[in-house]
Write a structure and sequence with these properties.
- By secondary structure, this protein is α+β, with helices and mostly antiparallel strands.
- The protein contains eleven helices and 15 strands.
- The strands form three sheets. The protein has a seven-stranded mixed β-sheet with strand order 9-10-11-12-15-14-13.
- The chain is elongated, with a radius of gyration of 24 Å.
- The termini are far apart.
- 27% of the residues are buried.
Length: 364
């Protein structure tokens, strides 16, 4: 549909683009997104432009991070979007998945022209970005990879492939940018075409539309998409221990980032799934446990909230006890492949945190 401007004399149709404005879109789109990435419909921290992939001839247009800790490959297509843009973006995502924290730090340092500047602090920039986006606990960077493809119009082949990938759990977004002219003013109109917009009338009369993959098949989403083979094996073992030893409602799979185990309709344990570790978050009565005691008991590291993000990434299995309110604490237990899940000590610990769950507290 056309874009209209309401004036004192009534609605006025905004002039459609012409070849001159289309040329402007091709030349300026990267600048516009780099200046304000919320054009793409979400908060993003731009890490670099025209980022060179080591050991290849590839160069990606924009590299960003989102507040959930995902890295975002932004590919801009001048003119019509067409094959093989989708495979190119996925190839870039596969490269980025292998990068370390320091790689992103160096890219942002170069992008901000801060090479050699001792005052440049990537961790502070990243943490401030996450906090501004409303994230209470700053996530690890590069937990997963996403792709956003942006251009003037989407050809049927690319749209079909992108939608197929999205429906199978690949986090891909396709955005069309339309450009309009109102006198001397240039107006840009981003439209997200993949994932398709939710039709608010879709459920009228009982009809249902497919939901996101973690709703459709949460078990497959967590075990086959978010976990590696190693963390999948670790989860299966932990689940068997829980089922054999506790009266519990779970696993509940319907969340994007975690699997829940409930007692009295409250989450006693959530397990955040990832490629390199599992994070077990327990709800317990306040002052029931201390980080030092758990670390000593399980022979793991203490997760120091004051450490830098890169230091945190390098920790082996670790633990942190954090106060939630006057009645409850949370135990954050990060389990990596160095952790002995099969030990009697771990089972004893699980039994203690199960007993410490505030089952009857009104102020849970």
């Amino acid at each position: 549909m056309s874009l209209w401007k309401v004036t004192d004399k009534g609605p006025k149709k905004i002039t459609e683009t012409n070849p001159k404005q289309e040329k402007m879109l091709e030349e300026k789109l990267e600048d516009w997104i780099a200046t304000d990435p919320t054009i793409l419909g979400e908060p993003l921290l731009i890490l670099g432009r025209q980022v060179i992939i080591p050991d290849t001839k590839d160069r990606l247009d924009l590299l960003a991070a989102d507040p959930q800790g995902n890295t975002v490959i932004i590919e801009l297509k001048r003119g019509k979007l067409k094959d093989p843009v989708d495979m190119q973006a996925l190839r870039y995502a596969s490269y980025i998945s292998k990068w370390r924290f320091e790689d992103f730090e160096n890219i942002l340092r170069n992008y901000n022209k801060k090479v050699g500047d001792p005052d440049f602090n990537f961790i502070s920039i990243y943490e401030e970005f996450c906090e501004d986006a409303g994230i209470d606990e700053v996530p690890d960077l590069n937990k997963d990879q996403r792709t956003i493809i942006v251009g003037g119009s989407v050809k049927e082949k690319l749209g079909s492939v992108a939608l197929w990938l999205f429906e199978r759990g690949i986090d891909i977004k396709v955005i069309e940018i339309q450009i309009h002219k109102d006198g001397d003013d240039i107006l840009i109109e981003p439209n997200i075409v993949v994932p398709p917009p939710i039709n608010k009338f879709a459920d009228v009369g009982g009809g249902k539309t497919p939901g996101p993959p973690w709703i459709i098949d949460g078990k497959s989403w967590h075990l086959n998409k978010r976990c590696s083979e190693k963390t999948k094996e670790m989860f299966v073992t932990i689940d068997e221990i829980i089922q054999q030893n506790f009266e519990i409602n779970g696993p509940i799979w319907k969340q994007k980032h975690y699997i829940a185990y409930r007692v009295n309709n409250y989450n006693w344990l959530i397990i955040i799934t990832a490629q390199n570790y599992l994070r077990l978050d327990f709800l317990v009565k306040a002052n029931s446990f201390k980080s030092d005691d758990i670390a000593s008991r399980l022979k793991i590291a203490k997760f120091d909230i004051e450490e830098t993000l890169s230091e945190k990434f390098g920790l082996p299995s670790s633990v942190l006890v954090k106060n939630r309110n006057e009645n409850t604490d949370r135990i954050f237990l990060r389990v990596k492949d160095d952790f002995n899940i099969h030990s009697d000590t771990f089972l004893s610990f699980l039994k203690d945190v199960y007993k410490a769950f505030p089952k009857g507290d009104a102020n849970i």
